[in-house]
Design goal:
This protein is α/β, with parallel strands linked by helices and 228 residues long. The chain has helices spanning 10-22, 33-39, 61-71, 85-93, 106-120, 158-169, 177-185, 192-207, and strands spanning 2-6, 26-30, 49-53, 76-80, 98-101, 122-123, 129-130, 132-135, 138-141, 146-149, 152-154, 175-176, 213-216, 220-223. 40% of the residues lie in helices and 23% in strands. This is Sensory transduction protein RegX3.
């Protein structure tokens, strides 16, 4: 996987790049916001993940995140020393997919990188990368986060899209409620279960295909491929 590392500290970038390389990542290093944006033009989707440090010398990291989101649907993980909840919420509202607070454990960072990339890009059995998932009349474009039914665009919220994309990775396979909550909402709080039910109901309504997402009582949900 190609990864864009946006970090102004060369020593930190060199150490982290070495670790990521050992885990199979092809790292491109950008030292500031302008270099990051240039790396994403014209084809930002060539990267699997953007690892964005917020303490940049030329631009505010939040501003850079907003610009990246306008260029590409590539997952963005913010890295910062700001641990307050308000900062995290602000970053997520700007389009970040995850938020890591310094100092962080390398294992946790790697797990978060894999988690956000699984929600956006998945590989088929031959190892080729799919960017569009087709399920009968439903078309899911992963890089642009667009969904259509019979050619008509369907407007989904960020979490609705993440939920649908997760289930679409493996049609027919049951995803446990705990797994869905962990991957889409990145929490284990049991109270999120009601939120999950609401999002499933909203998806069924917006797609006008109530049978597409099946409830497996006591376990979770699965996506039923049309014709299956």
């Amino acid at each position: 996987m190609r990864l864009l590392l946006v970090e102004d500290d060369n020593h930190v970038a060199a150490a982290l790049s070495a670790i990521l390389a050992r885990h199979g990542f092809d790292v491109t290093h950008a030292r500031n916001g302008e270099e990051a944006l240039q790396a994403l033009v014209p084809d930002g989707d060539c990267f699997g993940v953007v690892l964005l440090d917020l303490g940049l010398p030329d631009q505010d990291g939040y501003e850079v995140c907003g610009k990246i989101r306008k260029l590409t649907g590539t997952p963005v993980i913010m890295v910062t020393a700001r641990s307050d909840v308000r900062s995290r919420i602000h970053g997520l509202n700007l389009g970040a997919d995850d938020y890591v607070v310094k100092p962080y454990d390398t294992g946790e960072l790697l797990a978060r990188i894999h988690a956000v990339s699984r929600r956006t890009v998945h590989e088929d059995a031959t190892g080729s990368t799919e960017t569009v998932v087709r399920l009968g009349a439903v078309r899911i474009e992963l890089p642009t986060r667009q969904v259509s039914v019979d050619g008509t665009a369907v407007q989904l919220t960020r979490k609705e899209f993440d939920l649908l994309a997760l289930l679409a990775q493996r049609p027919g396979v049951v995803f446990r409620r705990e797994q869905i909550i962990s991957e889409v909402w990145r929490t284990s709080w049991e109270g999120t279960g009601r939120t999950l039910e609401v999002h499933v109901a909203s998806l069924r309504s917006k797609l006008r295909m109530p049978a597409l997402i099946e409830t497996v009582r006591g376990v979770g949900y699965r996506l039923v491929a049309p014709g299956a």
